[in-house]
Amino acid sequence: MEHRVEVIWTCAPCEVGGRDADEGGDDPRCWNCDGPVVVVGRPAVLQTVPESDAA
Asked: Domain of life here (predicted)?
Protein backbone atom coordinates (compact mmCIF):
# COMPACT_ATOMS: atom_id res chain seq x y z
CA MET A 1 0.00 0.00 0.00
CA GLU A 2 1.33 3.44 -0.93
CA HIS A 3 1.28 6.26 1.61
CA ARG A 4 1.38 9.87 0.52
CA VAL A 5 2.27 12.58 3.01
CA GLU A 6 1.48 16.11 1.99
CA VAL A 7 3.06 19.28 3.23
CA ILE A 8 0.66 22.18 3.71
CA TRP A 9 2.30 25.57 3.20
CA THR A 10 1.68 29.28 2.77
CA CYS A 11 3.55 32.04 0.91
CA ALA A 12 3.11 35.37 2.72
CA PRO A 13 4.27 37.70 -0.11
CA CYS A 14 1.88 36.09 -2.62
CA GLU A 15 -0.89 35.42 -0.08
CA VAL A 16 -1.38 31.92 -1.50
CA GLY A 17 -1.05 28.43 -0.12
CA GLY A 18 -0.74 24.91 -1.35
CA ARG A 19 -0.08 21.24 -0.71
CA ASP A 20 2.83 19.26 -2.04
CA ALA A 21 3.84 15.65 -1.85
CA ASP A 22 6.67 15.35 0.64
CA GLU A 23 9.31 13.61 -1.45
CA GLY A 24 12.07 14.13 1.08
CA GLY A 25 14.99 16.49 1.17
CA ASP A 26 13.68 19.46 -0.80
CA ASP A 27 11.62 22.18 0.81
CA PRO A 28 8.39 23.07 -0.96
CA ARG A 29 8.37 26.15 -3.20
CA CYS A 30 5.56 28.57 -4.01
CA TRP A 31 3.78 27.72 -7.25
CA ASN A 32 3.25 31.44 -7.92
CA CYS A 33 6.68 33.05 -7.30
CA ASP A 34 8.88 29.93 -6.86
CA GLY A 35 10.07 31.40 -3.58
CA PRO A 36 10.47 29.74 -0.18
CA VAL A 37 7.30 29.06 1.81
CA VAL A 38 6.32 28.54 5.43
CA VAL A 39 5.22 24.98 6.21
CA VAL A 40 2.07 25.14 8.34
CA GLY A 41 1.26 21.44 8.56
CA ARG A 42 2.58 17.96 7.99
CA PRO A 43 -0.31 15.52 8.51
CA ALA A 44 0.56 12.37 10.40
CA VAL A 45 0.52 9.06 8.56
CA LEU A 46 -0.57 5.95 10.39
CA GLN A 47 1.02 2.70 9.27
CA THR A 48 -0.41 -0.69 10.05
CA VAL A 49 1.88 -3.58 10.90
CA PRO A 50 0.95 -6.93 9.37
CA GLU A 51 0.02 -9.50 12.04
CA SER A 52 2.96 -11.70 11.07
CA ASP A 53 5.37 -8.85 11.99
CA ALA A 54 3.73 -7.91 15.30
CA ALA A 55 5.69 -9.06 18.31
From this structure: Bacteria
